[in-house]
Amino acid sequence: MCRILMARAAQLFEPACHLDAIAAIARASREYQGHGWGCAWLVQGEWRLYHNIKPIWEDSRPELPPTTALVVHARSAFRDEGIVVENNMPFCDGRFVFAFNGELRGVRIKEEGRIGAEKIFNFIKRFDRDGMERALARGTELILKRSRYVRAMNILMASADESLLSTHFGEDPEYFQLRTRTLDGVRVVCSEPYPGTDGWQRIENGRTCAVTALDN
User: Fold this and answer.
1) What is the pLDDT of residue 204?
2) CA separation, residue 154 to residues 5, 73, 109, 204 (Å)
3) CATH number for the domain harbouring residue 195
4) 186/9 Cα distance (integer angstroms)
5) Does residue 132 contact residue 164 with C-beta atoms inside 8 Å?
6) pTM for this entry
7) pLDDT tens, position by position, 118-154
8) Which residues does 184 contact at the CB level (< 8 Å), separation at least 6?
9) Are 88 and 73 within 8 A, CB to CB?
10) What does DSSP assign to residue 87?
């Protein structure tokens, strides 16, 4: 399944090292992560997006400016289907960006979207009445109840003002469990520790929260 990354800080940081890290993670992954990739970063409170159908480790990645938020997704397409750049995350609705990895079986929800991840994004937004953190919790709760089996469902969402995560997996925690660490003042959530680093904390299965809550 796909590899995902979120980095957030109160001050501007250079995103290049984070792109390099997830490129190395994707290239070395035991599952192929070469069905394209994408990233989103904030510029003066607005999201900018980049997507490419090449594997992230083969692409001449753009030189991103300093930012306070970065979300990256390296894609492993389910059953090698739908390999077009339009299906690459992060998705963005103008306010929130969304990245997903996992596999759901027997999902009983009706929603618009080209692929399952986009349907999940749109489904969660239905519940955005008292804030997106509650919407994320409610939406994922219902998806879990309406799925025959959840191999994994990891979600990263971010707006100009907040970063959120939700993590659920039914098997293989070594592969599906998200990790977090603060690096040079940047809070990072990633599918795997960055190569050559240690001190990463595993995020417990079943947690949905704001990324700031990871400091507590």
Assistant:
1) 96
2) 11, 12, 18, 12
3) 3.60.20.10
4) 5
5) yes
6) 0.95
7) 999 999 999 999 999 999 999 999 999 999 999 999 9
8) 13
9) yes
10) G
CB of 3 within 8 A of CB of 28?
no
Q: How many domains does the chain have?
A: 1
Task: Write out the residue range of the structural domain in which residue 111 sits.
Answer: 3-215
Give the residue from 197, 184, 206 showing the smallest Cα distance to 7: 184
* Exposure on the CB side of residue 126, measured as CA atoms within 13 A: 15
* 138: three-class secondary structure by DSSP: helix
User: What single DSSP character describes residue 30?
Assistant: S
Cα separation values, 21 from 5, 6, 118, Å:
10, 12, 26
Note the pLDDT of residue 82. 52
Higher per-residue pLDDT: 116 or 181: 181
**DSSP run (H or E) holding 187:** strand 186-190
Q: Which residue has the higher pLDDT, 214 or 40?
A: 40
**First and final C-alpha spacing in the chain:** 29
Q: Which helix (H) or strand (E) holds 90?
A: none
